[in-house]
Amino acid sequence: MSKLTMEELVAFCNQYGFIFQGSEIYGGLANTWDYGPLGTRLKNNIKDAWRAYFIQQRDNSYEIDSDILMNPTVWEASGHLSSFTDPLLDCKECRTRHRADNLISGHTSLVNADAMTQEEMLEYIIVEKIPCPKCGKSNFTDIRQFNLMFATQRGVTQSNSNVIYLRPENAQGEYVNYLNVMRTMRTKLPFSIGQIGKAFRNEITPGNFIFRTIEFEQMEYQTFCKKGSDEEQYDYFKDYGIQFFESIGLSKEHLRYHDHEKLAHYAKAACDIEYLFPFGWGEINGTHNRTDFDLTRHQEYSGKSLEYFDEQTREKYIPYIVESTYGLDRTFLAVICESLEEELVQGEIRQVLKIHPMLAPIKVNVLPLIKKRHSEKALEIYRMLQKRFMVSYDDSGTIGKRYRRGDIIGTPYTITVDDNTLENGIVTLRERDSMQQTNITEDELKTYFSEKISF
Ligand code: GAP
């Protein structure tokens, strides 16, 4: 894992076009970040990897793209209007707002704030005289539950009946379409619906860069199954999650499970996969056994039957749902933390992003050894590869400098065009991590990269 601090990682992302501060020229907007050209490619490549793993390589698995704005009754039925809250309190001295559970866990690791009631948290904060992290005094208001959903108005008149919400999770879009997917895909239980999309939460606590933001993307995956098979599915997806993270290059020792004691209003069992970030362990995935809670509630609130008819047993029942949900931005951050390294090469520090070739924003950097003599041929090869892969062309500075420029943004391969190319069609291929150089003919390049740049 990167030994770099969060500040250094933020600076790296900014310097190389991965992530910029949101609304930067206006002084920013807290907890918002914009993805730059290389960051956007990396993010899309993570999405593609997830898609390959969850949609393409699994049977009975379907991707949808549902709207962010939904009928507000969805959020009544899901319980988000009443229960999707954070316990907040204010410091009476400096007016800073805090999450009560974070105050406790930041103060001691001896108690688990997640398992405490609101009253227990307040009592603990008072008895232990937990200080405000900003001003150091211990004088707080009562705890209030603060709803995390962003509300907006539909139409031109401002009235409560026009309030609609930006979705705080993707899942509900998948639940309300469960019948549509089952009917049109002519599928049977168990089957899964996945979705990649934005979610919005009015988070007030500091974000640790893109770890906690108010607008973020989730890759959510819901498996609809028969009651009784839910626990097996739950165990399966916990394991599958670790496999997915390993497949994109996160190492096992930086991943761990965190089973929940206090469960969300919809869950029978819940477990996170956490990654060891420079600031400590943080959740990147959550797997939840949501039972028949969601579909039962949607049936109740919509008045539409959401029962499944089991042709084999002739039974009718509401399916159980096992959800495995992945934070795209947090996965992005984990990939950067895992891959960014500094190493000593011939007495000089080499910064290199040792990212999986499939995730690399640019796959191949094409260089002419001598600009005047080799650029025409190098450009020809660049154009040929560009039809299949994201590639770059670089003819400025020494070869060493050009190698380093590719290394730092994670480009896994560099090819150099020289006299041997002009005379024999042979290029020099350099591999990013080992820095080893080999010869390969230009005719072999497309096949070679197609094999290397896949999972
Ligand atoms: N549908 C279930 C659900 O949304 P969650 O644990 O609240 O569950 C799922 O969120 C994932 O979304 C988390 O594991 C995390 O990776 C990501 N996530 C949640 N809140 C986030 C935030 N404020 N900023 C960035 N990612 C977030």
Report on the architecture of this protein.
With 455 residues, the chain is of the alpha+beta class. The protein has three domains: 257 residues, 2-Layer Sandwich (BirA Bifunctional Protein, domain 2), CATH 3.30.930.10; 59 residues, Herpes Virus-1; 91 residues, Rossmann fold. The strands form seven sheets. Strands 3-9-10-16-13-12-11 form a seven-stranded mixed beta sheet, sandwiched between helices. The longest helix is centred in the first third of the chain and has 20 residues. The two termini are 21 Å apart. It binds glycyl-adenosine-5'-phosphate. Glycyl-adenosine-5'-phosphate (GAP) binds next to strand 10, strand 13, strand 16 and helix 11.
Ions, cofactors and other bound molecules: glycyl-adenosine-5'-phosphate
Number of helical segments with 4 or more residues: 15
- What's the mean pLDDT score? 95
What is the name of the CATH superfamily of the largest domain? Bira Bifunctional Protein, Domain 2
β-strand number: 23
Keywords:
single chain, 455 residues, alpha+beta, BirA Bifunctional Protein, domain 2, Herpes Virus-1, Rossmann fold, 3 domains, 7-stranded mixed sheet, 5-stranded mixed sheet, 28% strand, binds glycyl-adenosine-5'-phosphate
